[in-house]
Amino acid sequence: MGQGGQARRRKGLGWIGLAALWLGMGLRFYRLEAQSLWYDEGTSARLSEGPLRHILESAAQDIHPPLYYVLLHGWADLAGRSEFSLRAFSALTGVLLIAAVGNLTARLFNREAGRLAMLLIAIHPLAIYYAQEVRMYTLLGLWAALHSIFWLTWRRRPRPGRALGLLLTGAAGWYTHYVFPAIPAAHLLSMLIDSGHGSSRRLLRWMGLQAWIGLAVLPWAPVALTQLRQWPAPAPVPPAEALRAILRALSAGITLPPEVPSGIVALPLIGVSLGLIRGIVDRAAFPESKPRGSWIALMLMAGPIGLVLGRGAYREANLKFFMAALPAFIALWAAGLERIQWLLRKRGGRWGGRLGLALALGLMLGPLGISMWALYFDPRFSRDDYRGLARMLAAGIRPGDGILLYAPGQVDVFTYYWPQAPLLPAPLRRPPPPEEIQETLAPALRGRNRLFVLWYGEREADPEGRVETWLDTHAFRAEERWVGRIRFAVYGLGEPDPHPAPGVQFGEAIQVDGYGITPSPLHPGDVLRVMIRWRVRAPLSTAYKVFVHVQGPDGRPVAQTDREPLGWRRPTTTWRPGEVLEDRYGVWLPPTLAPGRYPVLIGFYMPDGQRLPVFRHGQRIGEAWEIGIIEVR
């Protein structure tokens, strides 16, 4: 290599590239263990344990190929299995992705665009988000970039080392994620379009290399076909709506707050559009441009998008798949920015070009800054807090309590934080038949006092809500709140002492036909259990809510439950005259509740808050019925 070539190689990164690497590393390791591992990360942590054979067998039951889990296993043997250590593998992969995107962009366009690409992906919220997750999506982006780099170098001048790199990165991509085949498909399309001298010969040699990759992937092919057939079919989304969401994610990540106008992502798209325009500009005006680079980048970006949309696999949760398209998107964006700098430098000199580039960066990086801040600090984008839930339950669990995780993968992440958790068996079939629910849950709950349930993904696994209906029929739901995407619920167990009809009526249409209440004494943290049989005397045109209040000395509730009857499934507007409904309510007494005697009140209220009057033996007694008094010790 001559001195000129050595000088060009020495200036390959430049200070912008080096700064981008250091900045990207800092952003990927910043607050790396601040959040809990979530559902999918727990799956990665569990699948990467054990010997290689166990990993392969477990991955065959998963929905993704095994390479990421195998690599994570080797990494964890060296670095440990803490949250920081597991995520550090993705973080370091993300740093390598920065360098790979810079190299890819330089080969598609020029070194200046490559350095800008490194800066863009270093601060890109989508790249940072998945570089801080124990999943394979950053590795998918790295294989997509490296495979394209080897393809470009091999295509320009075939050499054994480049062919080997093409083979290895191609097989690695196939074994990492099933969206990766869109990348060699984009290469094929590019070679079919390019009809230059020797293109047919190169195409045949490239297809021979793909055949070798196919042989490497062949042992996993039966498993892959089975997994792809079992891939959950998401609800259909209009293609235009899906494409807008994909471009928004590629422009500013998945943490751009919804209140930010969608028009703000037009700023990055302007840069991408300018990068595309480079492919059709007059070479006389831009003699150093590489027109093919724009079209190759466009195909590399469009390949994963077309594969996901064409297969009908798009949903919001699958935006992570487009990490395969991000390197090409960034390359086009950087090419557009470099073109702005080139034009301004041509008109305003060196300083004009620098100031123009700074202005363009300032405008276009606005969405990235907003999204990056939200990624780190906006709780709406925090991962599900299994760590916090495990710690809370471990601190308050008692003998006789049980925990039900209604999603198979929850066991992996929950037991990562609490290996000895008293977990109960859950129905396995999706959706579960009624007989399996009865056979699984009835013996598991027998003799227990409290049940804690972590609902996740139950609308897909059990769309009719059979398990929840069974629990509302056999237990007493006391507490329910969302922790990220987890619905945390508390149930009381055991039948309360029955009582005959007390002669109580609510309004003109609802009569109490019998009731039951947990006998005293109770303790802080217990679940008060209340069962009531409603007899419907007349049609109801208003959807009333039921309240159960444990009243404090000042007349205010110290604990309460408010909801529509029968676990929200039987609004009062659906009640039929003559019908008798058995309804169950639980009230979770606060752990800090002071000892004493507390009245328990029950009643109905309208959507505007107005309560139904209560009558006893025909005499009005107020707007709530005191069903009993409990003693708390």
Q: Could you explain how this protein is built, in words?
A:
With 633 residues, the chain is an alpha+beta fold. The protein contains 23 helices and 15 strands. Strands 5, 6, 7, 8, 11, 13 and 14 form a 7-stranded antiparallel beta sheet that branches. A hairpin with a 2-residue loop joins strand 13 and strand 14. The N terminus is likely disordered.
What share of residues are in beta strands?
Answer: 15-25%
Largest sheet: 7 strands, antiparallel
Question: What is the terminal-to-terminal distance?
Answer: 87 Å
Shape by Cα distribution? elongated
User: Uncertain runs with pLDDT below 50, 5 residues or more?
Assistant: 1-11, 282-290
Mean pLDDT: 90
What Rg is obtained from the alpha carbons, in whole angstroms? 31 Å
The number of helical elements comes to: 23
DSSP strand tally: 15
Helix content: 40-55%
SSE-based structural type:
alpha+beta
Kindly list the characteristics that best describe this protein.
single chain; 633 residues; alpha+beta; 7-stranded antiparallel beta sheet; 4-stranded mixed beta sheet; 23 helices; elongated; disordered N terminus
Secondary-structure map with pairings?
Layout: H1 3-10, H2 14-29, H3 39-47, H4 52-61, H5 67-79, H6 83-108, H7 111-122, H8 125-131, H9 137-156, H10 160-174, H11 182-193, H12 199-217, H13 221-229, H14 239-252, H15 266-277, H16 291-310, H17 326-364, H18 366-377, H19 386-396, E1 401-406, H20 410-417, H21 434-445, E2 450-455, H22 458-461, H23 466-474, E3 476-483, E4 486-492, E5 497-499, E6 504-506, E7 510-517, E8 527-536, E9 545-551, E10 557-563, E11 580-588, E12 596-605, E13 614-616, E14 619-622, E15 625-632
Helix pairs in contact: 2-6, 2-7, 3-20, 6-7, 6-8, 6-9, 6-17, 7-17, 9-10, 10-12, 11-16, 15-17, 16-17, 19-20
